[in-house]
Amino acid sequence: MRGPTWHARIECGGMVLGAGFLVTPSTVLTCAHVVRDGDAGITVSFPGRPALPGVTASVAVHGGWAGGVTDPGDLAVLRLAHPVPLCPADFAPPGTEQGLPAPPLVAYGFPDGFPEGQLAEYRAVSATRIADQWLQLEAVTGHGQPLAPGFSGAALALKDGRVVGMVTQIAGEEGVRVARMLPTEVLARYWPGLRDRVPARVEYQHLARRLHGLVRRAEAAGLAPAPEQLFVDAVGDFGPEVPPSGFPSLREAAAYVQWEVDEPAEALARFADRLSHLLDGPAGTPAVPDADAPTADATATATDWAPILVEIDRSGVGADQVTVSVSAYREGRRRPVARVRLDRAEMREYIQAGIEEAYDQLAFGAEELLAFVLPEDLLNLPVAQWPCRVDDSTPLGCAAPVVVTGRSRLHGRLRHHLGKQWRKLARDPFAPLHRVGCGTLEEPAGLRRRLREKDAGLAGFGAPPDAVPEHFKVSLNMPVPVLLWPRSGCADSAGHTEPCAGTAFLDAVSPHVEGVAATELPHRIKELREEAEAAAEPERHWAHDVQLLWDDPRCFPEPAASLHSPVA
């Protein structure tokens, strides 16, 4: 089985000086000392994909390393000249490298004489950090490849491939099998962009989510409490001190609590409680409106979504060629991440990597929404079932809310009328489900009239689009804000009336979506997908392949066409 392709080889001036690892399709992490001669030109290549040409790179972030062997901040973030179609590294929660016994960690480096690379196996000696920076490493065995020059910047990964840190220092004497690593929480200290990629420890994930939700509320309300005082109150007398530069924002103080406090559960809870007191007041009556609460304001949504938009379109070059674009929304503005034309067989891996990079564009702690803009004939594509990464089998639809839409619904007349419908839903958000059975005898024109007369906000199909193509097209081309259907099920719509899989699907889904605000349906469908995935036989669960078409125009303030030059 092919191993991870995110291992990187770093060359400066034509000489191999160290290793690195891909953290987004256009970002590589390595040691600052590896690229200290970067003025001679930096080239990054990937030995796991030898056919991929080397890519030039530049230093985008420097950890502040001063040049000495034991100086802190020995980290550099390299920005590639263009994205590469590889899946970035995945990370384990901080502390996973510890244990009794400590798990073996594998590094992929490039010692002299091995331009294709070598593997070395080490483990952390202790959870104690040297000078609050490094963990000491010792070889698992007394033989095999030692960590030698050429391993600096290599990721240290568990056997399952998840990264826990980076090799920074190696032994100065030949044959000595001792080295040092910077664990991920220290790497994130010097590059905050890494924080969104490293998962919190399982035991306090719920506390971190609560705190960052309160931070979002405070930011939305313009509340500006002194972050240093909140931090001191949270960590207590024996916690870490406020850094000399202070905290530029409330968000930075909250992140510092999560990342820099040993066993931070109590500190996270205290920080959240104090911030909640400032927001809601002592009597429990909200002093500051909850930004996530439903509202009748036509310009607001119940959830402050931060969409990642994935557009797939026919390229016009060949039947198997598609154009893929990935972008992210932040502060109402659309930020392009990647755009490429490739074979359809290659698009899933490219999109997985593009989504990972798009997360870097989102505000810290933002509520992500993965929205796929698809051609009409691909609206049944199983995007929610795609794994998050090549080395992470978690379905996308279980990791984040996933929705689909058609390109025509994001601009023009239909977008305008959808805006009107979403304003109505803001006033009366609980839309009933208008059923379209897989064996319906209703004419398409009759369905159009019914949906218009009922002012439908939510329509559910008992069959996939290709089983009822005319009826589906009617709903797709009308300003019905939300459509849902099973991706599989009854493939024959020849007027059968007896109970069937489609009827069972509609009966099962109705109580889960009726009475739920339309703006919250992406969350609700994600919960159903998680429930199905956790079942004894996921493929037999009725919600296993539910598809949700959802395209609130307020979440996508720019039409899709505005990304690209009409001349190009």
| Content-based structural category | alpha+beta
Number of helices, where a helix is a run of at least 4 consecutive DSSP H or I residues:
12
Beta-strand proportion:
15-25%
Q: What is the C-alpha radius of gyration, as a whole number of Å?
A: 26 Å
Average predicted confidence as pLDDT? 83
- Strands, count: 23
Tell the overall outline. Answer: globular
The strand order across the widest sheet is 1-2-3-6-5-4
Share of helix, binned? 10-25%
The termini sit apart by 41 Å
Low-confidence stretches: 282-302, 559-568
What characterizes the major β-sheet? 6 strands, antiparallel, barrel
Oligomer: single chain
Describe this structure in words.
- This protein has 568 residues and is of the alpha+beta class.
- The chain has twelve helices and 23 strands.
- The protein has helices at residues 184-190, 205-221, 227-235, 250-260, 265-280, 347-359, 396-399, 412-427, 444-453, 469-476, 501-513, 521-533; strands spanning 7-12, 15-24, 27-30, 42-45, 55-62, 76-80, 105-109, 118-124, 135-139, 155-157, 163-170, 178-183, 305-314, 321-330, 333-343, 367-374, 387-389, 392-395, 402-406, 434-436, 458-461, 482-486, 546-550.
- The protein has a six-stranded antiparallel β-barrel. A six-stranded antiparallel barrel has the order 7-8-9-12-11-10.
- Helix 10 (469-476) links the parallel strand 21 (458-461) and strand 22.
- Helix 3 runs parallel beside helix 4 (250-260), helix 3 crosses helix 5 (265-280) and helix 9 packs parallel to helix 10 (469-476).
- The longest helix has 17 residues, at 205-221.
- It starts with 6 loop residues before the first strand and ends in an 18-residue tail after the last strand.
